[in-house]
């Protein structure tokens, strides 16, 4: 027979176990409800994406069928309970890439980013910008991240980007590369506090270092690799600026953004530019569009009108530099110059296609924490033309030239 004390102990133990079980079940229920609630929000975002792209995009179904688009989204929704936010983000990126529109883009806002920014060269991917803590790794080539080789990383990133334009893909590969949400969703990194990089120094030494990701708002002062300080093209970040070289009689005009500057209207700037042309009578004029991602194509009209009438409008005197960042309005400017002037085009193929959807609007997916842009108009800029605008003189994107601060496009024109 049990004693009163033992009986009481047994009862208390039993009650405690019941209470513990109840508390455990309660917390499990809370967790389940949180997951389910969160899941409902994710599905809500996916459905918002479906509705907006289907109903407001000019024509999202030129390269895929509406049925295929909906099937992909239905599959994602059915599998979303087994995925985390980063994996859902990557799956949506892949679906969006299948639309094949260069202006319908997903911009995931990661809570954390790598402390590096990268540039893709012919020889590989290099760190060209870093936070102050890791500036010693500037100009190091990246061999792998968390045991995933650069070749595999590039291959994985390509699945999230439309692939009908190599320059466009290259641009977005490096744009997405420091976004930890995308890297996590692709399975490249797992621990945001310990990300292992295998790097190759300029001296040929292979090193392995572990870095932590950083909050976006913490980055206030990026450090740039030394070549940026020596290359003419990077000497100003103004929307438009020029420099005349008396020794070789070359006037260099950098048009960095299709937008009016706060300090000087483009009309006023253009007058100053052509005043110098009339006074100095340069032998050559270089228009550099390589860093211009677009804006308002009409801004450049005063220049285009004036250059058509200029004595410099011939293939040996007027040169236009293009590259992978040239898209949208800057591409439209380049196309007009190609069709209506005698300029020689130098550089790489443009990231934008000659004929493309554009005139973008945007919306937010609040639970996936990303902005989405979509096209509302089709621009047929050059009938029957396909793909990029290509240069007359191709310049390779060489890492060896970059580390020597050698801008081959300008150097060839200067010869």
Fill in the keyword field for this structure:
415 residues; alpha+beta; Pdz3 Domain; 2-enoyl-CoA Hydratase, Chain A, domain 1; 3 domains; six-stranded mixed sheet; four-stranded antiparallel sheet; globular; disordered N terminus
C-alpha Rg, in Å? 27 Å
Q: Outline the biggest β-sheet.
A: 6 strands, mixed
Distance between the termini: 108 Å
Average pLDDT figure: 92
CATH topology of the largest domain: 2-enoyl-CoA Hydratase, Chain A, domain 1
Number of helices: 12
User: Low-confidence segments, ≥5 residues, pLDDT <50?
Assistant: 1-37
Described by the principal axes of the CA atoms, the overall outline is globular
Portion of residues in helices?
Answer: 25-40%
Q: What order do the SSEs take from the amino end to the carboxyl end, as H and E?
A: HHHEEEEEEHHHEEEEHEEHEHEHEEEEHH
Q: What count of structural domains?
A: 3
Task: Give your account of this protein's structure.
The protein is an alpha+beta fold. It has three domains: 15-100; 112-224, Pdz3 Domain (Roll), CATH 2.30.42.10; 227-353 and 388-414, 2-enoyl-CoA Hydratase, Chain A, domain 1 (Alpha-Beta Complex). It is 39% helix and 22% strand. It contains twelve helices and 18 strands. The strands form five sheets. A six-stranded mixed beta sheet has the order 11-12-13-14-15-18, with helices on both faces. Strands 6-5-7-8 form a four-stranded antiparallel beta sheet. A hairpin with a 2-residue loop joins β5 and β6 (148-149). The longest helix is centred in the first third of the chain and has 53 residues, at 4-56.
């Amino acid at each position: 027979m049990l004693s009163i004390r033992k009986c009481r102990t047994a009862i208390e133990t039993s009650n405690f176990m019941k209470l513990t079980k109840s508390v455990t079940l309660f917390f499990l229920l809370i967790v389940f409800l949180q997951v389910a609630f969160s899941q409902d929000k994710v599905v809500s975002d996916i459905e918002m994406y479906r509705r907006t792209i289907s109903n407001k995009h000019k024509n999202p179904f030129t390269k895929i069928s509406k049925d295929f688009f909906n099937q992909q989204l239905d599959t994602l929704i059915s599998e979303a309970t087994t995925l985390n936010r980063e994996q859902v983000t990557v799956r949506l990126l892949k679906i969006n890439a299948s639309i094949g529109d260069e202006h319908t883009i997903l911009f995931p806002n990661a809570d954390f980013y790598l402390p590096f920014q990268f540039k893709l060269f012919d020889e590989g991917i290099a760190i060209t910008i870093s936070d102050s803590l890791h500036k010693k790794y500037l100009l190091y080539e990246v061999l792998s991240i968390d045991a995933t080789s650069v070749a595999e990383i590039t291959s994985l990133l390509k699945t999230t980007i439309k692939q009908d334009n190599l320059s466009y893909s290259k641009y977005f590969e490096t744009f997405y590369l420091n976004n930890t949400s995308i890297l996590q969703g692709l399975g490249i990194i797992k621990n945001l506090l310990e990300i292992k990089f295998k790097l190759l120094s300029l001296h040929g030494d292979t090193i392995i270092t572990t870095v932590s990701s950083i909050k976006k708002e913490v980055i206030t002062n990026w450090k740039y690799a030394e070549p940026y300080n020596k290359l003419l093209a990077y000497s100003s970040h103004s929307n438009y600026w020029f420099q005349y070289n008396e020794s070789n009689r070359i006037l260099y005009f950098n048009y960095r953004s299709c937008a009016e500057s706060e300090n000087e209207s483009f009309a006023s700037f253009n007058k100053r530019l052509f005043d110098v042309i009339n006074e100095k009578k340069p032998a050559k004029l270089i228009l550099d569009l390589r860093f211009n991602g677009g804006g308002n194509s009409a801004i450049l009209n005063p220049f285009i009108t004036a250059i058509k009438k200029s004595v410099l409008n011939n293939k040996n005197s007027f040169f236009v530099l293009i590259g992978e960042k040239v898209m949208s309005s800057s591409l439209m400017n380049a196309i007009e110059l190609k069709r209506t002037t005698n300029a020689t085009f130098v550089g790489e193929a443009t990231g934008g296609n000659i004929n493309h959807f554009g005139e973008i609007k945007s919306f937010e997916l609040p639970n996936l924490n990303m902005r989405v842009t979509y096209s509302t108009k089709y621009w047929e800029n050059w009938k029957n033309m396909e793909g990029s605008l290509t240069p007359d003189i191709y310049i390779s994107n060489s890492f060896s030239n970059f580390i020597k601060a050698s801008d081959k496009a300008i150097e060839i024109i200067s010869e």
